[in-house]
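User: quick one, fold this
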Amino acid sequence: MKRPAVPAGKLLFLHVPKCGGATFYRILTRNFRRVYPPINGSLESIEQLRSLPRRELERYDAFGGHFFFGAHELFASPCTYVSFVRHPVPRVLSNYLYIFQSKAHVLHKFVCPEGRAPMPLLDFVASNLSGALENQVVLMLGNRGIRRPEFIERFALEVQEGKYPNFRIPFDDDGWSALLERARSNIETHFACVGLTERFDESLGVMRSLLPLADVSYAAVNVTIAKASDADLKAASEVILRRNRYDLALYEFCVRRLERQIEARKS
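Assistant:
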């Protein structure tokens, strides 16, 4: 299959963790000639991207991984973003279970300490162990500039050094509200589509109509198998919703936007 180049510059796939991104990245590699290696969100991978000479960056058609909004400022070419989001409850639950199951995950040793009982689900969702626990999507899509906020960079460095994570976000309600509005504005201005993990096929249909994606067939990868009691899930869900009300508002905004795009395809 001939792989088309991005017609108007670079395609930037902003991969929110546990939202189907590994599956979508594979679709990118089948549809574009030169796809940059996946950015895993570590300080090393992000710094490597930032430090590449612009002429080297311009060689690639598409980029994907765990980076924040603002990466387009690295490029001379125009950029178009895509992403997927997910309801906060299954997203955070999937994050916990992935850390629990993956011994290679940087947080596994804190969730499953050697010689001690694993951290219960309810303790995890109420903790400051991970940036995924409180409005992660608003933080990622509402960012501005090439760099992540300083408190996120500091947290990433502490985790890299093996310190016990303590992710503190210095925002009050006014700060969160402003960040939510910026995330909405960034989406409307820079994103061709923000798909929904729960409506993956419909999202791919919209993306295929807007972008040069000739082949959107897929087999799901990195699927996390849920294992928790109904009582634990109910209690954890209440905490997740309380801590992620701005993410929920952004998710609902993305649902409405995707539905308008789906209706536009029918007309």
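User: anything notable?
Assistant: The chain has one domain: 10-266.
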